[in-house]
Amino acid sequence: MHRLETHVDPNSPSYKAFYAHNKGLAAELAETLRKAREDRPQRAWDRLAEQDKLPVRERLDLLLDRGAPFLELMSLAANRHYDGEAPQALLVTGIGVVSGREVMVIANDSSLKGGAWYPITTRKIVRALQIALENKLPVVHMLDSGGANLHLQDEIYAWAGKIFQQQCHLSAAGIPQLAVVFGYCTAGAAYTPTLCDQTIMVRERGAIFLAGPPLVKAATGEENTTEELGGADMHTSVSGVADYAVDSEAEALSLARDIVGVWARREKADSDRRAPEPPFHDPDQLYGIIPDDVKKQFEMREVIARVVDGSLFHEFKPRYGDTMVCGWAFIWGFKVGILGNNGVIYSEAANKATTFMQLCDRDGIPLLFLHNVTGFMVGREYERRGITKDGAKMLMTQANVTVPKLSVLCHASQGAGNYAMAGRTWDPRLVYAWPNSRSSIMGPEQAADVLTQVRVAGLRRRGEDPSPDEISTIKTEVTAYFEQTYHSYYLTSDLRDDGLIDPVDTRNTLGMSLSAVLNAPIVRTPGGVLRI
């Protein structure tokens, strides 16, 4: 491998302008994350204290190995939904280390709305369980929720069922699950702890039942206390629904660490790992490399040089299909095959990517996609040369490789280019986005032009002749809609990625991700590699 050269000039006006812009976006992201995690009315903290409950972050501190990294996922889920009343979808999810073992943690945040489930909450749980299943990660459920928000039940119901199905699949795959019950698990939510291999309950606070005392009395006339109906002592000594009863949350989490510590360990997949080293080029310079407008291009090799070990990179076909950069590198000592866009995808770029993915799939090397793409090239010349056919080859190959795929939206990620680069719907193991990134079917300007033409044509077919001002209003409305829905904060709120990340954190995020995905074995694809 050779060290990538850099052509970045930190003294240039454009670098300084880009640096200030992206540094501002990073600061905004940090503050947004802080608010989502910490901003609560004082009465919310007081209520937890009155209930003798710890905030969810303090519970995590007691569960996770001290000093070990925690890869929090979907941190801004629901932040642009429900008028902001469900920050992080009232749920913390992430990959952490417990007793030396990488696990998926799913923890209710009961500081607001009693930790009630919103539609995005259920989708977030399903996504976390999917990640655990694909990557063979044990799951620790930290349960403390008031149940479904019944005002939104029509959007919650089906996804809630998917949670329990995923738990069944995890069990069938031999992946351990542990439940720690800090609060009520009522109705359907009672199945989460009972579908786990082991369950810990906190006395006087944790409860599991299909119907609570008021509903049981209304339905049958029978009167019960919470402890009689579904408390820790009853379930650990009579029903057998739970396995351990403890007196405090601290005791519960200490016991949880002990249980995880005795689970059987999996060997990491063969990843040809070597000693990691930091990038030779300063990752802080990423702020000055990324333009302040998604319509402006940049050199993806400059990004790669600030993410990979030693800034070392072995490029594949460096003189062919130059709008697609392909090559091998190491991140945190893990070997990875990288595909990065330098703009629109032409036939040559698609064909190069296709062959490169086949090579990595044959050799069991995980793939990393770095997005900066507006789609595939269009026009008569390119259609005659078979751009659709060549794009289909890239899509077919990417969809069917068996090695883990990771994606980072670094700038634009639009149209079929997003699909070809393993966007969310193409099942990368994990996908992240930078705050400057934008993703949609097409850019707002192009969409506004197309939809304005369609609406104006419709008006004219009805005999109306819109004035220039009316046409301008239509275009402004369409542009505003697209500007909102392709924005990184809206997309991450709707779980179109697994989290917004600061560009300078990309390397560590990918390192933790590679470590996690290699808990699952890599099944190598038989067959030859086509020189396309």
UniProtKB/TrEMBL annotation:
Pfam families: Carboxyl_trans. GO terms for biological process: L-leucine catabolic process. InterPro entries: AcCoA_carboxyl_beta (IPR034733), ClpP/crotonase-like_dom_sf (IPR029045), COA_CT_C (IPR011763), COA_CT_N (IPR011762), MCCB/AccD1-like (IPR045190). GO terms for cellular component: methylcrotonoyl-CoA carboxylase complex. PROSITE patterns: COA_CT_CTER, COA_CT_NTER. Residues 282-524 form the CoA carboxyltransferase C-terminal domain. Residues 22-275 form the CoA carboxyltransferase N-terminal domain. One of its GO terms (molecular function) is methylcrotonoyl-CoA carboxylase activity. PANTHER family: ACETYL, PROPIONYL, PYRUVATE, AND GLUTACONYL CARBOXYLASE-RELATED, METHYLCROTONOYL-COA CARBOXYLASE BETA CHAIN, MITOCHONDRIAL. This is Methylcrotonoyl-CoA carboxylase. It comes from Baekduia soli.
